[in-house]
Amino acid sequence: MMTSDRIAAGAMPKAAAGGLSRRSFLVGAGAGISALALSGCVTGGMSMAEAERVYGPVPTEKFPIPAVNLSKVNPKYFRRTVKYDTKEAPGTIIIDPKNYYVYRVEEGGLATRYGANVGRDGFRWNGDVYVGRKGEWATWTPPKEMIARQPEAAKYAKGMPGGLGNPLGARTLYLYQDGVYTLYTIYATIHPDSIGKGVTSGCTGLLSQDMIDLYNKTPVGTKVVMLPS
């Protein structure tokens, strides 16, 4: 998220096999996760005309979403289908913070790839989590750790209602481990200039139009793999 919509990392989930240690959760040091053989060969690119359609306004939403200013997004971050070799099951979400991509594993050795923003230095982590719950135009409540770092967030201690100005945006996937909310999310952003950058406190943001697409395909319980950065 941008400076105004950073979500804080809070209490650390306990370490588990394939899970997140305190050190890896914070700084993305090499935690033990399943080996993945990855490739990113584009099989279905997106023309500018198609991008204008895909990232156009969404007036039917509770809070109408404006068109993305595509001049602020590197075209390599447009949604596309790519070849992607992995042992993970179709439907799994894989976040690649080093390259600012989120993958949804599809059938046949393919994946849907989305451009993303990720955690800034000091807030990166890696390991296996899962989608514990979902939210549309969710209320955002800053964790106490964030309020301590950014006192201006204290005015939202009882929650900020959903809307375009809400840091969580139109859709949110809440990431859990062992039944505990990690305080990390995959969320929707209306800030195109954040894509391809490390700007958050550990959360992962997609353009609103991409996040709606991913959200609609992702049931509660979906595995999420955060790769080392």
Structure description:
By secondary structure, the protein is of the alpha+beta class. The strands form 2 sheets. It has a 10-stranded mixed sheet, covered by helices on one side. It has a two-stranded parallel sheet with strand order 6-10. The model is unreliable at 1-43 (pLDDT under 50). The protein has 4 helices and 12 strands, in the order H-E-H-E-E-E-E-E-E-H-E-E-E-E-H-E. A hairpin with a 4-residue loop joins strand 4 (101-105) and strand 5 (110-115). The longest helix has 10 residues, at 208-217. It has one domain (3-226): L,D-transpeptidase catalytic domain-like (Beta Barrel). Residues 91-227 form the L,D-TPase catalytic domain. It comes from Kaistia geumhonensis. Belongs to the YkuD family. Keywords: Cell shape, Cell wall biogenesis/degradation, Glycosyltransferase, Hydrolase, Lipoprotein, Peptidoglycan synthesis, Transferase. Pathway: Cell wall biogenesis; peptidoglycan biosynthesis.
What's the helix and strand layout?
Blueprint: H1 22-27, E1 42-44, H2 48-54, E2 80-83, E3 93-96, E4 101-105, E5 110-115, E6 118-119, E7 127-136, H3 144-149, E8 171-177, E9 180-189, E10 198-200, E11 204-207, H4 208-217, E12 223-226
Parallel strand pairs: 3-12, 6-10, 9-11
Antiparallel strand pairs: 1-2, 2-5, 3-4, 4-5, 7-8, 7-12, 8-9
CATH T-level topology:
L,D-transpeptidase catalytic domain-like
Order of helices and strands: HEHEEEEEEHEEEEHE
Spans with pLDDT under 50 lasting ≥5 residues?
1-43
Q: Mean of the pLDDT scores?
A: 84
Task: Give the strand line-up of the largest sheet.
Answer: 1-2-5-4-3-12-7-8-9-11
Question: Going by CATH, what is the homologous superfamily?
Answer: L,D-transpeptidase catalytic domain-like
CA-to-CA gap between the ends? 17 Å
